[in-house]
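hey m, so remember when u said the tokens were messed up on ur end? i reran from scratch. heres the input so u can diff it against urs
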Amino acid sequence: MIVIEAMTGKKVMSFDFKNSKHQQVLNLLKQSALSAGKAINKIGILRPRPNEIGNDIEPYVKNALNSLGLNADIPVGPSGHKKAMGYPDILFWFNKTPYYLECKTYNIEKIGTT
């Protein structure tokens, strides 16, 4: 968390399963993930390295979040411009609160490795 806070200047909040607002955000993220996954599976994404797919899925995730009214977009960096690369990938809003989302992918065959 310290690295993320240093890179972004934003405070990282711990997820609280007892907090109803956090549960609502989690449910919306689950819906978005399912929707984005279905859209991706219609077309498919082929890359030599699974971690490269993270960049390719971002538009699908943004579209899925936006379909739920979460106003997803590319975050603005310290320069004041939208950033093309770096952390985090997506900014979305829920109940006037900003949330930052990083899209990560992995190869299921490598799930037990670091």
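this time it looks ok to me. Residues 22-104 form one domain. if urs says something different then somethings off w ur setup not the seq
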